[in-house]
Structure formats: C-alpha cells, structure tokens
From TrEMBL:
Classification via InterPro entries: Glutathione-S-Trfase_C-like, Glutathione-S-Trfase_C_sf, Glutathione_S-Trfase, Glutathione_S-Trfase_N, GST_C, Thioredoxin-like_sf
Protein name: Glutathione S-transferase
CDD domains assigned to the protein according to its UniProt record, in alphabetical order: GST_N_GTT1_like
Domain GST C-terminal: 86-207
Family (UniProt): Belongs to the GST superfamily.
Domain of life from the UniProt record: Bacteria
Species this chain originates from: Hydrogenophaga electricum
Limits of the GST N-terminal domain: 1-82
Lineage of origin: Bacteria, Pseudomonadati, Pseudomonadota, Betaproteobacteria, Burkholderiales
Amino acid sequence: MPLTVHHLNNSRSQRLLWMLEELELPYEIRFYERDKATMLAPPELKQVHPLGKSPVLEDGGIKLVETGAICEYLVDKTGRLGPTDRDEGLCQYRQFLHYAEGSVMPTLLLMLAMGKVPLLGRVALKKVQPMVDVHLDYIEQVLAARPWFAGDALTAADIMMSFPVEAAVARAGLGPSRPATMAWLKKIHARPAYQAALKKGGHYDYA
C-alpha cells in the first residue's frame, strides 16, 4: 500500500516529496491549494488532521504531522538517509534535523511578517536582519567545512534544511557572499530526486 502525502502547494511539504523520491518509496499525493486572498491552508486539511497543516503523511493506520518527525519515521522505516557516522555525524544529524524549524524558520517568519507591515515593519526589519545573519553565517561556516550538514553524505538533515535556506535566498538576502551555502543549494537542486519532486508537487516559489 503506497504512502499518502497531504500536500499544500508552495509549502514546506515539498521537502517530504523530495525525501520520498530519494528513498524511491511509492506514494500518492492529495493536493490542497492555499486561499488566494489569505494564503492560508484550506479548511479541508482540518478534516485530515486537527491542526489543518501540511504535510501530513499516512502510512496504513499511522498518521503523522511535523516534517522533522516524518523524516525520522521514514529514516527508521527504510534505514536510509540517516547519519553514516554514529558519533559526531549522529550529533550533527540530530541537531540540523531540528534546527531547521526550531531556530532558523521562526526568525525568517518574523522577517516575513515584519516585511508586510508598512513603516514600523521597515524599522523592525533592520533589527531582525542581524538575527537572521547570525544563522546564515553559521550555516555558511558549517557548509564550508563539509559537503553536507551531517558529514560526507546527504541525509534527512539536508532535506529539512532545504526549506529555510531556500526561503533565505528569497526573503533574507542570502546570496553569493556565502558561497558554500549557495553551492550546497545548487547541488541539491540538481539532484534527480529533487527535480522529480518538483514535477509532482506543482508550483514552488523557492526552487
């Protein structure tokens, strides 16, 4: 029985499609479109899960939310895309698996929200940008030292980090001044599994 992904267009759930393509697991997609006025998820997603958020993964009787938890579930299920080094690599893997949503995305979302507020928002952005830059400088330092977030091979940590890095290019000024990060981004975008996920998932602003 194939997995089912409840997929919201132009959202974090694009990462899950990429992961499933990397794992070569059979899956089907149920598509949901954002409200064009509010850009919020449609109420139909609340019929899938009380939070009304995406992605949601169904595997038989199991229903999971939170992309990081879903990634860990799929790594445990397949034995793939986990850390290859059980010592330092494992620590880095766990850190970046959770750092993506626990630290980076809240700061980027704050920047996005402030950018929509006239006048006061522009003032606030000047205070938020240095907070974002701390994260972007850290990410650059990590990727200048090794090819992937958890070591020498692609893991679920890279898949989790893809969305905040892509969002930072679009919203937070990430660019050529951080060459290691941009090289990593180019590398993941060139992967056949990433491209296959784009074709299946529909329009995605950050690719």
